[in-house]
């Protein structure tokens, strides 16, 4: 016999085997026991949560001649045939490929015939939301007035796509995502039955990665076992699921907290080189920060999760909120770009910068409190009124934030406002040939720079070049400001001069500013050209008047 996947081997055969859906299975068992089975059911929920398995167990339970307490015996001929998909009275239909009116009309025509072997004829329609409007209308009449010997079980992952008229004629059951703990316990049962050696952390990684789907959990476990048939290890679990080890996440955040940007970027690039998924890394990072936040608020975690306690003591609640927001924004941005590595580098820099700003704010807060205390001391110990004019004024928190924000804005305006003339000079002699040369040298330039410098240049492009100067435009203002504050310009100038074998001028600018300056240059050049043409035209007219006489000339504008 060929190998069977674990999710097929461990497919539930009794209601009691269905993991995480006890309310639903208990209700169905009572319905079977008391002969109160409905003519139509709607099973809704995420994939892999037991909808189709429960439907087949229900089909066996209502038809089994030996059912006990609502459970099928799974030994009789009827049960075995249903399990092996050999009973003609239990019909499974995939609505994804049989979604037309004709297929449903065929069902409607056949439901009037009595079952050949079983007590009830069961129609299990999977992914029922895929039916067309015409097919739903054809099904509606049968659901409204069904024969006594027919039961419909509709299953879907998207119940909102099903017409309300259909839903109202069924008993609806919502299958919930299976909790990580329930999934973990079931995986342990599977592993123990196979006599496999395992690491508890590895099993938890698999359970968590399944995201509430038991079928997915068993499929992932199957892959992990394929790596090593004798042991379920953390290494293989991380490799198969693409999850990030909590120790790695701890190291990354520790680098951020300590301001070691280059180490943090190197760590991420190392993970990506090994095949780590961008989005999965960010999701795991967000989850880790959330757990740091919960522990810092003395909230007990439901799972045995390893968290760096030093990070809990160093990161404030507001910093955790800020970190999670930045990570979430980056996840959204990944959907619209092919250069995902760049956004992870940007995120690393943003996390470090946000931490510095928070620390500056806290320091300003401390200064404010001290000044207020000093003022209170002055009130309690009156001094000469004339001396008060030299005493420090109290500083409000709003003033601190406002002055910091205005300072940052003025820095950027000042820095970019002084380079317009240099840019115009470059544009006057810029050529496409020089620009293409610089674009061809761009990767060579990056390879000569440090990781931190490369990260900043990853969101910049060479937008214009002449024989002895180039202009580099940055996508984001805060990265541009950081480049201005560092020695990036010096390093870039040094490397490009080395590559070209001559001294060059390197100009940094923000992309928005570059577009405006370039447009102004083009407009100015166009105006100059038009003025030149008008001047030349006037000279030609004057000469013609002298030769032919003013009355013999007619001027026609094109």
TrEMBL record:
UniProt KW keywords: ATP-binding, DNA-directed DNA polymerase, Metal-binding, Nucleotide-binding, Nucleotidyltransferase, Transferase, Zinc
Residue ranges of the region described as Disordered: 382-403
GO cellular component: DNA polymerase III complex
PANTHER family cross-referenced by the UniProt entry: PROTEIN STICHEL-LIKE 2 (PTHR11669:SF0), REPLICATION FACTOR C / DNA POLYMERASE III GAMMA-TAU SUBUNIT (PTHR11669)
Entry's Gene Ontology BP terms: DNA-templated DNA replication
Domain of life: Bacteria
The keyword Signal is annotated on this UniProt entry: no
EC number(s) stated in the UniProt entry for this protein: 2.7.7.7
Catalytic activity: DNA(n) + a 2'-deoxyribonucleoside 5'-triphosphate = DNA(n+1) + diphosphate
Family: Belongs to the DnaX/STICHEL family.
One Gene Ontology molecular-function label: ATP binding
SMART domains linked: AAA
Cited Pfam families: DNA_pol3_delta2, DNAX_ATPase_lid
Domain AAA+ ATPase: 37-179
Gene name as annotated: dnaX
InterPro entries xrefs: AAA+_ATPase (IPR003593), ClpA/B (IPR001270), DNA_pol3_clamp-load_cplx_C (IPR008921), DNA_pol_III_sug/sutau_N (IPR012763), DNA_Rep/Repair_Clamp_Loader (IPR050238), HLD_clamp_pol_III_gamma_tau (IPR045085), P-loop_NTPase (IPR027417)
Name used for this protein in its record: DNA-directed DNA polymerase
EC class: transferase
């Amino acid at each position: 016999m060929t190998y069977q996947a674990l999710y097929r081997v461990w497919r539930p055969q009794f209601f009691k085997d269905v993991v995480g859906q006890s309310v639903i299975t208990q209700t169905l068992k009572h319905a079977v026991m008391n002969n109160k089975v409905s003519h139509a059911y709607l099973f809704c929920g995420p994939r892999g949560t037991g909808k189709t398995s429960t439907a087949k167990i229900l089909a066996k339970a209502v038809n089994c001649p030996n059912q006990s307490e609502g459970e099928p015996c799974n030994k009789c001929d009827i049960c075995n045939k249903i399990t092996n998909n050999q009973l003609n009275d239990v019909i499974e239909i995939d609505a994804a490929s049989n979604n037309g009116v004709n297929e449903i009309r065929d069902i409607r025509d056949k439901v009037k015939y009595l079952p050949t072997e079983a007590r009830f004829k069961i129609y299990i329609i999977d992914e029922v939301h895929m039916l067309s409007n015409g097919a739903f209308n054809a099904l509606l009449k049968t659901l409204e007035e069904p024969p006594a010997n027919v039961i419909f079980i509709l299953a879907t992952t998207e119940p909102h796509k099903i017409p309300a008229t259909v839903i109202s004629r069924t008993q609806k059951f919502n299958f919930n995502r299976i909790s990580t703990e329930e999934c973990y316990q079931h995986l342990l049962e599977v592993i123990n039955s196979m006599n496999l050696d395992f690491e508890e952390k590895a099993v938890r990684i698999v359970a968590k990665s399944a995201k509430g789907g038991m079928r997915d959990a068993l499929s992932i476990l199957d892959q992990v076992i394929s790596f090593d048939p004798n042991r379920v290890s953390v290494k293989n679990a991380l490799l198969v699921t693409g999850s990030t080890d909590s120790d790695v996440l701890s190291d990354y955040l520790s680098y951020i907290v300590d301001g070691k940007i280059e180490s943090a970027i190197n760590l991420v690039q190392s993970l990506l080189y090994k095949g780590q998924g961008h989005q999965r890394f960010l999701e795991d990072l967000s989850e880790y920060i959330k757990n740091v936040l919960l522990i810092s608020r003395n909230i007990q975690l439901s799972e045995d999760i390893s968290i760096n306690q030093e990070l809990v003591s160093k990161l404030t609640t507001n910093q955790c909120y800020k970190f999670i927001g930045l990570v979430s924004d980056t996840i959204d941005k990944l959907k619209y770009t092919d250069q995902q590595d760049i956004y992870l580098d940007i995120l690393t820099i943003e996390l470090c910068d946000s931490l510095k700003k928070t620390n500056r704010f806290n320091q300003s807060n401390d200064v404010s409190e001290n000044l207020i205390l000093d003022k209170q001391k002055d009130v309690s110990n009156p001094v000469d009124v004339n001396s008060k004019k030299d005493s420090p004024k109290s500083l409000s928190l709003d003033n601190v934030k406002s002055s910091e924000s205005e300072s940052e804005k003025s820095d950027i305006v000042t820095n970019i406002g002084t380079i317009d003339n240099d840019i115009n000079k470059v544009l006057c002699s810029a050529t496409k040939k020089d620009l293409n040369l610089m674009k061809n040298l761009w990767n060579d330039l990056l390879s000569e720079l440090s990781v931190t410098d490369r990260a900043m240049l990853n969101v910049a492009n060479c937008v214009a070049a002449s024989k002895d100067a180039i202009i580099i435009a940055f996508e984001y203002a805060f990265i541009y400001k950081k480049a201005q504050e560092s020695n990036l310009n010096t390093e870039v100038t040094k490397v490009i001069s080395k590559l070209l074998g001559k001294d060059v001028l390197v100009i940094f600018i923000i992309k928005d500013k570059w577009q405006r300056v370039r447009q102004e240059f083009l407009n100015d050049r166009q105006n100059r050209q038009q003025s030149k043409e008008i001047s030349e035209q006037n000279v030609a007219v004057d000469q013609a008047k002298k030769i032919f006489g003013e009355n013999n000339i007619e001027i026609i504008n094109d």
